[in-house]
């Protein structure tokens, strides 16, 4: 029987990560909806079944493996013309057995950056973006000097994003710091994110652009010139606006109490998970968090953590 159009079908799916960094995708069999398209393996969560139990069962049924280690990656909702799915996505880091198509489906191992070469299900697009992002997003201290930033690079996570946030500088001074910082980052895997106009970011070869929550509602927010875009969000409305604009990710907080917002009530991990539930976009947690909080962030379906003081002590 075909589900009602307004019904939400809960699905657990897994991203198997090989030691090489490649992930596994499977082709939908000819007897299923959207036959021939590719997807991350998984299936419907049965009544009374937890997402993790469904993940274990589905990957055994489809690929003949036993999941040994997995953690939440993201939880997103997607509306097709005939149905709406809520994908509970898990990153699978260890399993027993050699994956093979028990339903005679084709499958392939693919680097995250090459996933766009396959015709994937539309619902899986945010998963691809999540796999192409690091787990940690570092903001520069707002009053940092160039020398302080340069000397701190070696202490940053090796593949982090680094937002240059110096609100007191005019555009000319900000550009000068950005030029020198970009030069200091050469030879590292740290990727530079700027927060002024998109043309400056493109000119300087920055990885991406960061939009404040206020800029999400300004007309020029759409003029990002093909850059990767991350948005600041304070609540669900901001997240939905970022999705509408096609942002690649968002930062939501404050999760904990911070010196910069001592009177603002923190979301906590429960609040973070509530605000991001079903949002089809990777979301970092920010506010009083750092590397040590990654396990809690993952449990709340965050992409990872973002922060300032935790990375520049």
Keywords for this entry:
8-stranded parallel barrel; single chain; 9 helices; TIM Barrel; Nucleoside Triphosphate Pyrophosphohydrolase; alpha/beta; 4-stranded mixed sheet; 313 residues
Give a verbal description of the structure.
It is a single chain. The protein folds into two domains: 8-125, Nucleoside Triphosphate Pyrophosphohydrolase (Alpha-Beta Complex), CATH 3.90.79; 136-312, Aldolase class I (TIM Barrel, Alpha-Beta Barrel), CATH 3.20.20.70. It has an eight-stranded parallel β-barrel with strand order 8-9-10-11-12-13-14-15. Strands 4-1-6-5 form a four-stranded mixed beta sheet, with helices on both faces. The chain is an alpha/beta fold and 313 residues long. The chain has helices spanning 51-63, 125-131, 146-152, 171-185, 198-203, 236-245, 268-276, 294-299, 309-312, and strands spanning 8-16, 23-27, 38-39, 42-44, 66-79, 84-96, 107-110, 136-139, 161-163, 191-194, 208-211, 228-233, 249-252, 283-286, 304-307. It is built from nine helices and 15 strands. The N and C termini lie far apart (59 Å).
Strand content: 25-35%
CATH superfamily of the largest domain: Aldolase class I
Overall pLDDT confidence? 93
What name does the CATH topology of the largest domain carry? TIM Barrel
Number of helices: 9
Largest beta sheet, briefly?
Answer: 8 strands, parallel, barrel
């Amino acid at each position: 029987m075909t589900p009602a159009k307004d019904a939400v079908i809960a699905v657990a799916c897994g991203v198997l990560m090989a030691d090489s960094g490649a992930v596994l995708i499977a082709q939908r069999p000819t007897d299923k909806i959207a036959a021939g398209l590719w997807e991350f393996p998984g299936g419907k969560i049965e009544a009374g079944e937890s997402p993790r139990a469904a993940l274990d069962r589905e990957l055994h049924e489809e690929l003949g493996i036993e999941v040994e280690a997995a953690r939440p990656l993201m939880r997103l909702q997607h509306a097709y013309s005939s149905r709406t799915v809520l994908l509970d996505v898990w990153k699978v880091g260890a399993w027993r057995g050699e994956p093979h198509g028990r339903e005679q489906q084709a499958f392939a191992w693919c680097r995250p950056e090459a996933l766009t070469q396959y015709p994937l299900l539309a619902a899986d697009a945010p998963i691809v973006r999540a796999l192409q992002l690091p787990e940690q997003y570092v903001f520069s201290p707002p009053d940092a000097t160039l020398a302080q930033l340069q000397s701190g690079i070696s202490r940053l996570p090796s593949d982090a994003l680094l937002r240059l946030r110096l609100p007191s500088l005019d555009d000319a001074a900000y550009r000068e710091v950005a030029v020198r910082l970009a030069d200091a980052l050469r030879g590292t895997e740290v990727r530079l994110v700027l927060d002024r106009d998109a043309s400056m970011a493109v000119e300087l070869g920055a990885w991406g652009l960061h939009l404040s929550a206020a800029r999400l509602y300004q007309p020029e927010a759409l003029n990002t010139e093909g850059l990767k875009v991350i948005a600041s969000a304070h609540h669900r409305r901001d997240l939905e606006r970022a999705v509408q604009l096609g942002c690649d990710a968002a930062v939501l907080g404050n999760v904990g109490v911070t010196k910069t917002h001592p009177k603002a009530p923190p979301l906590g991990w429960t609040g973070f998970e509530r605000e991001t539930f079903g949002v089809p976009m990777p979301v970092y947690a920010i506010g009083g968090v750092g590397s040590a909080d990654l396990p809690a962030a993952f449990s709340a379906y965050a992409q990872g953590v973002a922060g300032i003081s935790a990375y520049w002590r």
